[in-house]
Amino acid sequence: MLFLDDDQVRDLLPSPAEAVALMRETLLALADGSASVTPKSQVVHEEGGFANAMPAAWPERGLLGMKWVTVTPSNRERGREMIDGLMVLSAPDGSTRATLAAAELTALRTAAVSGASLALDDRPVTLLGTGVQARSHARVLEALGRGPLTVWGRRQEALDALSAWCAAHTPDLELRTTTDRAAALTGAGVIISALPIGLDGHALAPEEVAADALLLPLDYASVAGAGIARTGTLVADDPVQFEALRPVKLGADYPSPTAATGDLLRDGRPEGLVIAQNLGSGLGDVVLADAAVRAAG
């Protein structure tokens, strides 16, 4: 049985532009029901930590698999990665095709879903946060020619480290950085938030953003809280999963989505503020894992 570690997965994954095209197809499949998915199941193994199982199937493409992902905050104290995971890819007959380390795959999937969602708005992009997702999103935005990218961070040293990384890895992307959040939001048509999940004190107020902005939160309700979500059109990559997770992950007072992100990609976005809560579907992981395994030969 084939096993691919993160270094191998990184080399075998499709290009950022190809991944965006695949995630667009995935979002459309989630919207039209042609794929079989179930909401993430979760267990808690430490305070603030959890593990999710994310199965998915796309019968017409012969795709079947599951991602197991763990979030362990105490690993920070041990100098280890907080997020880890494993992808299991099955053949249509149920046999195991391959297992793959999931870190690189997850980073690309998350950024590529954002990249696919950018078809809804062609205005300047601001990203809040300086972590792994800032780097993976920089790769995608460079591939799509969507610069400049403005990044807000709380610490100048983190912004400097990101600038150095982008200079080496995304040289064709114009990067602007600031510790002034108001300045970062000024003129932004698209706001991607990648702060820690559950972080307090960073929720956006409606007056901080353009009345017709596109919000792409990666951090659940840390930035796109219930207050601002009630003022616009709320969609989700997988509305059924969103509803299952909403009381626990976002709060019982968080509004329900009115459509799938794929519906807007197919039919066009409405006027006014749009919040696309793409919480992450196992289907996207299965699609990218399949591409990596095919590339492995």
Explained architecture:
By secondary structure, the chain is of the alpha/beta class. It is built from ten helices and 15 strands. The strands form two sheets. An eight-stranded parallel β-sheet has the order 10-9-8-11-12-15-13-14. A hairpin with a 4-residue loop joins β4 and β5 (63-71). It is globular, with a radius of gyration of 18 Å. The mean pLDDT is 96.
How would you summarize what this structure contains?
The protein contains 10 helices and 15 strands.
Lateral arrangement of strands in the main beta sheet:
10-9-8-11-12-15-13-14
Q: What is the CA-CA span between the terminal residues?
A: 13 Å
- Give the class from helix and strand content and strand pairing: alpha/beta
Q: What CATH architecture of the largest domain do you see?
A: 3-Layer(aba) Sandwich
* Low-confidence region ranges: none
- Global mean pLDDT: 96
Give keywords.
alpha/beta; 2 domains; Rossmann fold; 297 residues; 37% helix; 8-stranded parallel β-sheet; 7-stranded mixed β-sheet
Outline the secondary-structure elements.
Elements: E1 2-4, H1 6-12, H2 16-32, E2 36-37, E3 41-43, E4 50-58, E5 63-71, E6 83-90, E7 96-101, H3 103-117, E8 125-128, H4 132-144, E9 149-152, H5 156-169, E10 175-178, H6 181-185, E11 190-193, E12 214-217, H7 226-229, E13 233-236, H8 239-250, E14 259-260, H9 261-267, E15 274-277, H10 282-296
Helix pairs in contact: 2-3, 2-9, 2-10, 3-4, 3-10, 4-5
